[in-house]
Amino acid sequence: MRCTVFGTGYLGATHAVGMAELGHEVIGVDVDPGKVAKLSDGDVPFYEPGLRKMLCDNLAAGRLQFTTDYAAAADFAEVHFLGVGTPQKKGEYGADLRHVHAVIDELVPRLTRPSVIVGKSTVPVGTAADLGRRAAALAQPGVDVEVAWNPEFLREGFAVQDTLHPDRIVLGVQPDSRRAEAALRQLYAPMLDDGVPFLLTDLQTAELVKVSANAFLATKISFINAISEVCEAADADVTLLADALGYDPRIGRRFLNAGLGFGGGCLPKDIRAFMARAGELGANQALTFLREVDSINMRRRTRMVELATTACGGSLLGANIAVLGAAFKPESDDVRDSPALNVAGLLQLNGATVNVYDPKALENSRKVFPTLTYSTSVAEACDRADAVLVLTEWQEFVDLDPAELAGIVRARVVVDGRNCLRHQRWRDAGWLVYSLGRRTERV
Ligand code: UDX
């Protein structure tokens, strides 16, 4: 089949490549000629394991192209995916829908055949129905344009796997929909044949599934981080506690990793937009708990600064601190709302000299925080450090040899911000280990 994907950011580019990998002919469309040129050359503008190879394979096979030309894209297919960004509005909790509106306004008048526009972006509930009305008003006479919603659940770092092997496919359609289900069943046939569950809903349920999923995940993380605060007060161990909770299949161990909390381009903005939308709908009381989820999460960052201060002997002034990790999570170069980078900035504001190292996110970090010092290796960052802070759980940091690192630092003090290190191993090498939600054993 043929399809287009509007927006070649994280979501759109991955979806375009994934659709081509399933054997379809795909055009990715973006208003940014720079992104289009890069992708056309086989270069992914962000780090995502496995994506570059899949992009190159499909470009070479002739199934995938990228363009800025809306007219050509409108003409190419009858199914158009919408994968543009919906960032948080400046100074407000709500989502900024200008990119979504721009695609509808530019694309719909150019359509000459009955078409389906399938939204994948995360939007406030009610948006898809609005877009349906907007499209109907803009469509040429006699051209039927349907809007459907097919939320995307992919995780950064696992985008290829999540796109080709999703847990479920959710499709929301208009009440009078005629084409969307058949078109999507055909496009996703290889996945449906693999037994991936397909849930057909109305538009608003599909929109809500996505934000509810992210709100649940954020709540799960903040739950364990709140318990972590109690563990610290009671001298208990949050990681053992999480393991014990996780054996209950109703709870599950995943997303119960206590530490520096969540960040990135999705969870923080999505829970805020969800609260804002619930308020607009008159259901604001229903989601007031998300405000608490958000504040527990933000408190992790200040708690980390306090812990680092303790680790440096009570003051950050003049302390030389190595920060390992800047990305919001491992296997990503994304630093949007990154807890690690945020903490690095706070430490510097409190008078510390901060050397940051990350395997993939240095370039993006420099753009956001040009005043921090960046190192190109763990050894360089840790040179004469008074404390080493592990703030993103990259495997490279989990595998560090504490005995080797001991010869580089000024003081053998490590702060495990993600509860990812084997503490006994570090203590055996003479290190003092601090972490969130666990006691500090003196050696
Ligand atoms: C998330 C959702 O998981 C995904 O389904 C959705 O499509 C987009 O938003 P992503 O932003 O890629 O994906 O990251 P995710 O793996 O969910 O992690 C989010 C944050 O939570 C990271 O900062 C991570 O470090 C943190 N986290 C995760 C924890 O602090 N503890 C955990 O146990 C799990």
Taken together, the total number of domains comes to 2
Q: Spans with pLDDT under 50 lasting ≥5 residues? A: none
Q: By CATH's scheme, which homologous superfamily of the largest domain applies?
A: NAD(P)-binding Rossmann-like Domain
- Rounded to an integer, what's the Rg over CA atoms? 24 Å
CATH class of the largest domain: Alpha Beta
Structural class: alpha/beta
Number of strand elements: 14
Bound molecules: uridine-5'-diphosphate-xylopyranose
Q: What coarse outline follows from CA principal-axis ratios?
A: elongated
Structural commentary:
The chain is α/β, with parallel strands linked by helices and 443 residues long. It has two domains: 195 residues, 3-Layer(aba) Sandwich (Rossmann fold), CATH 3.40.50.720; 207 residues, NAD(P)-binding Rossmann-like Domain (Rossmann fold, 3-Layer(aba) Sandwich). The strands form three sheets. A six-stranded parallel β-sheet has the order 3-2-1-4-5-6, sandwiched between helices. The chain has a six-stranded parallel β-sheet with strand order 11-10-9-12-13-14. The chain is elongated and about 75 Å long. The protein starts with a strand and ends in an 8-residue tail after the last strand. The structure holds uridine-5'-diphosphate-xylopyranose.
